[in-house]
Design a protein that fits this description.
2 copies of one chain form a homodimer.
Chain A: H1 2-14, E1 23-28, E2 33-34, E3 39-43, H2 48-59, E4 63-68, E5 80-83, H3 87-98, E6 103-106, E7 113-115, E8 129-136, H4 140-145, E9 152-159, H5 163-173, E10 178-183, E11 195-202, E12 205-213, H6 214-231
Helix pairs in contact in A: 2-6
Chain lengths: 238, 238
């Protein structure tokens, strides 16, 4: 972790402070939705992409808050980390911080559903089958984008099919400023990988960022968000 | 990891080789049961207790196989590790290895249920509610104990209530030689903790191993299994 901090320090020397004065909030990792005191529903997100974006934004001079689910990663130097478990915890933190941020990047793989009735004691293995009723979780990025005086809001779409169509639909339906799509069924793209490729869509156009390390990809993404933000500024800074 | 190997080497000097010539199979960690390509059901097991038992048995001179679900732990020196994801994968490996082992310690927190119909593509977040049909997973430790010429089989019972009653029932019902019970709702006991306490039950008696580090607890447990095994030897070695 000390090595990482030193590395961050030297790497950051090369970047200009083009985000100085801006606040960024980034969500990362999975969420965990409990079934009972020992079991949960989750997903394969490692948090690496969100942590890389947090590091890149901090190195470009932004004040960065990183809201993250359970992950096994060191916090990037200079980044304020807020640990959460469930989608509802993550939304509470996101809505509080969204009021004072310029850019909100929703990179977390939020569990779409939570268990409707969480058992207080461990569920015994009795019946041959078990019906689990799941309830839809709040849509965190859409709730941030729907705020009065919302920040510049960037969503992610991790898909296994029809990537562009689903991404364009999400951009419109959730009223986002930008969406970053990736096909997680392609080897080396997304979950748990150290590399990724992204297709960015915004109202004014689109851009493909080809396969590279998540850290390099994060640097390119942060630069691109900054340039689109410059062209279409959001309501006055908070 | 190198440090850990050196540490293992020096620690092992102190132990006699009282398990020389024996083979032990240990399962550890959670299993993950997929819902679709990105989501899964799992539990809070860190794998630490099972890894500690594998290390202790290896240091006492046994040939050790460690079958483990997804965990973030280094393999103890000299231990043969087999990585698996689901309960069915774990059972396949366990039944193969059980035929040539003297002792089988089922420390893994196997998911009791798997999703009946795993979706090939990511499930879209459409309906407000979702019914998930779960099917009971095979009972790995019971299937090992039910083998002709079964090894000395040790189960674990992680409970949040009625710990002793549930443990005694499991010992009988699954036809085990020993069961190690702990109350995972007590702070410092079990899941993700570095310490644990265990209550051991076997046909001839019971023993409480009080709260200590998982590594020390594992050493005591391995010694105790060895002494009970000596009193009540299993069918001829495989």
């Amino acid at each position: 972790q000390l090595c990482q901090h030193c590395l961050d320090y030297f790497l950051s020397d090369g970047d200009s402070d083009y985000l100085a004065g801006q606040t960024w909030v980034i969500t990362a990792g999975p969420t965990r939705e409990p079934m009972d005191p020992v079991r949960f529903i989750s997903n394969h997100s490692s948090g690496k992409m969100g942590f890389a974006i947090a590091r890149a934004a901090q190195q470009a001079g932004a004040k960065v808050y990183l809201i993250c689910g359970p992950v096994q990663l060191a916090t990037p130097a200079g980044v304020e980390r807020i640990d959460v478990e469930t989608a509802i915890d993550m939304q509470t933190q996101a809505l509080q911080l969204a009021l004072k941020t310029d850019v909100f990047v929703a990179c977390a793989a939020v569990a779409d559903y939570r268990v409707a009735q969480v058992a207080e004691q461990k569920i015994k293995k009795s019946s041959q089958q078990l019906q689990l009723l799941l309830e839809k979780n709040p849509d965190i990025v859409a709730s941030v984008a729907a705020l009065d005086n919302a920040p510049f809001t960037v969503g992610f779409a991790a898909e296994t099919e029809n990537v562009e169509t689903y991404a364009q639909q999400k951009l419109q339906r959730k009223n986002l400023q930008m969406i970053c799509a990736n096909n997680v069924s392609t080897p080396g793209h997304g979950f748990n990988s150290d590399t990724n490729a992204l297709s960015l869509y915004w109202r004014g156009g689109n851009l493909k960022l080809p396969l590279t390390s998540k850290q390099e990809l994060a640097r390119q993404l942060v630069q691109h968000i900054a340039s689109v933000l410059k062209e279409c500024p959001q309501p006055a800074s908070k």
